[in-house]
């Protein structure tokens, strides 16, 4: 099965039943911008309204750095909300590779140590690759916050005009 079909199958599975929380994460990076953007969008299996976050950080070294920062921030937000069973989703294949083979990514070792330590806070944790199309909400949040002129962090108090 080719990659496109595999991703479509995986995206279709997102419609199925699940327990705990699903957290979609994305980083946004542009060389000419002052900030990187991080965004997450979380749904719960028990019918709670979705939660979401958007924050800009001093522009990181690369798009992949922004993706890692987005995941770490989303993990910290989930821990802070006492969500212990979380399936995380990203459209960045290198991020999935990195957390599954950390020793092959020495330039990211500081981030990966932080990732390991945060991951231990969860009873159930996974990180899966999804298509960009299935990650539009997190992508939208990350892109919008990246272009803000000042440092800003939103958790659930997202500006109305940013919403999808």
From TrEMBL:
InterPro entries: RNase_H-like_dom_plant, RNaseH_domain. CDD domains: RNase_H_like. It comes from the Eukaryota. GO terms for molecular function: nucleic acid binding; RNA-DNA hybrid ribonuclease activity. Residues 25-144 form the RNase H type-1 domain. Transmembrane segments: none annotated. This is Ribonuclease H-like superfamily. It comes from Arabidopsis suecica. The lineage of its organism: Eukaryota, Viridiplantae, Streptophyta, Embryophyta, Tracheophyta.
